[in-house]
Amino acid sequence: MVDKIWKTAIRLDRLNGKRYLSNATVKFFGSTEMINRDGETLRVTLSFQAATTMSSSFRLAFLSLLSIVSLFLLSVATALAPLSSWNSQLSKPSTTALPAASFFEDEEVFFSDDDEDIDSIFNGPPPSIVVIGATGGTGLRALQGLLDVGWEPSRIRLLTRNPDAPLCQALRDELGFKLFEVDFDDKSDENSNRLRMALQGCSGCYVHALGSDTRKVRKGVAGDRARSLAFDIASQCYGNNKFHVVLNSAAGEPNHGVNRIQEMHNIERVCNEWKNIRLTSLRANLFMEEFWKTYIRPSVCDKGKFSFSVPSDRSIHLTSVRDMGKLAGTVLLRDIILKNNDNDDSSSSRVMNVAGDVLTAEEIAAVFSKAQDSPCRHSSGRAFAWFCRLFFRDMYQIIRFYRRTTETTDIPKLQQEFPGLLTDFKSFLDETDWGNPDLSYANFTDVDRLLSKSPRP
Predict the structure, then answer these.
(1) Is the pLDDT assigned to residue 12 strictly greater than 90?
(2) Do both 83 and 216 map to the same domain?
(3) CATH number at residue 399
(4) N or C: which terminal CB in the chain sees fewer CB atoms within 10 Å?
(5) Are residues 152 and 56 in the same domain?
(6) pLDDT per residue over 33-57, tens digit each?
(7) Which segment, 78-87, 213-222, 332-341, is predicted with the most confidence on average?
(8) How many separate domains does the chain show?
């Protein structure tokens, strides 16, 4: 038996927020085919190495047959090389110039510098995506993640209930995002038509937030909004076509006991009920951006006390919202590339837990100390937990969850699949300038500060 039939890696490069296909490696029956672009030329090298566990006599016969096949393929490639049509394809920076693209199965994403544009990897007009719930504070962090992996603002359609808000106007006028007025609580035909117009011609959708953003969870709201979205998405799909939805969700075992997490899982369930939707659910852990809010940052910076209602030795998985945008943008881009090369493997949905770091509460306090150059210690906040249990049940559910949860995230495996796209906690504090006392959570809505295309660290 052959151990591996094929395994692939797509290399996508980036410069100034733009990415393109520059390298493809294809393993076929244990062989490796490297395809590299160097200016106007394409160098192809084939080498075969059988990865088998067969008997020696059968292996000899198999290798002989494989050698004959390889010689035949090389002779065909040599005969076709002078043809003008082949040469013209090789000179194009499109994935159609890469014969190996038909073998794409698993992908990995890397970064390097070059001069080409993401648009060049597509046949026809570049794709657009719809983004939902990203016109608030943490939403801008998610948009920044999309830009990090190469999506241009002009290719991102933002759905918002209030396109005339100052923040939305800045996103549209200063940066070039497309705005569509859509209210998922509005069941009118006019609103539904606006949603369908926003979805028309798009290659996918990233849902940063769809549930209630109030302090008290409004049960059922997220599910109802998801049904409206799923219905209108289905109206855009024909036959066996599937629309890719990437969802920000929450990590949690089946018996998590948290209403807010359950609302997100309800969105997953609704989307999975529709055969025209392929769902990739990115289940986040504790968002690092939460530490910037007023119930944590002032105490950490001014009093040197990190009040978080868990034992000091309790491990906490941490996720950056910006990383969620990076992963969502990467997953959508991969899917587009595969479809563009007639190698669409979109039959199944996927759930993945996302985290960039895992630290104990005591270790988090130590990282705070270094970032702000002043002492910080962890406090388990038992009195606060009892107060929430009496008066803020939704908050208490979250506190209890972090104290008891057994849910984990395989960070090394995630880093292997998405190299360079995950942020550890120290890097997050450095990136957001935690030590600057003049900054607050409100600065996350500063468009110029957050969405500037600064060089990648």
Answers:
(1) no
(2) no
(3) 3.40.50.720
(4) N
(5) no
(6) 333 333 322 323 333 333 333 444 5
(7) 332-341
(8) 2
Cβ atoms of 439 and 433 closer than 8 Å: yes
Eight-state DSSP code of residue 424: -
Output the CA torsion sign for 100, 104, 106, 107. positive
Decide if pLDDT at 230 tops 50: yes
Strand partners, 318: 286, 357
Contact residues for 29 (Cβ-Cβ < 8 A; gap 6+) = 2, 4, 5, 6, 48, 50, 51, 66
pLDDT (0 to 100) of residue 395: 79
- Which sign, positive or negative, has the C-alpha torsion 350, 351, 354, 359? negative
DSSP code, position 310? S
**Does residue 371 surpass a pLDDT of 70?**
yes
For residues 224 and 361, state if they share a domain. Answer: yes
Helix (H, G, I), strand (E, B), or coil: what is residue 393?
A: helix
Within-domain flag for 87: yes
* Mean predicted confidence (pLDDT) in 127-137: 90
Strands 204-207, 129-132: pairing kind: parallel
60, 62, 68, 73: CA torsion to nearest 10: -140
Strand partners, 244: 204, 278
The answer on 131 and 96 residing in a single domain is no
- DSSP letter at 28 equals E
The β-bridge relationship of strands 6-15 and 18-28 is antiparallel
With H, G, I as helix, E, B as strand and everything else as coil, classify residue 32. Answer: strand
Q: Is 116 domain-assigned? A: no
Is the separation of the CB atoms in 456 and 111 below 8 Å?
A: yes
d(CA 191, CA 197): 10
CB 168 within 8 A of CB 134: no
* Distance between CA atoms of residues 237 and 393, nearest Å: 41
Q: Which two tokens stand for residue 141?
A: 């962090």
Q: Which residues pair with 158 in a beta bridge?
A: 131, 179
Q: Is 381 left (phi over 0), alpha (psi -120 to 50) or beta?
A: left
CA distance 205 to 172: 19
Angstrom distance (rounded) from CA 340 to CA 119: 12
Q: pLDDT confidence of 382, banded at 50, 70, 90?
A: confident
Is 456 part of any domain? Answer: no
The more confidently predicted of residues 454 and 404 is: 404
Residues 56 and 131 placed together within one structural domain of the fold: no
Q: At which of 103, 137, 154 does a domain end?
A: 103
Asked if residue 135 is part of any domain, the answer here is: yes
For the chain, state the CA radius of gyration: 25
Taking residues 237-246, what's their average pLDDT? 76
418 is in which domain, residue-wise? 127-450
CA distance 376 to 374: 7
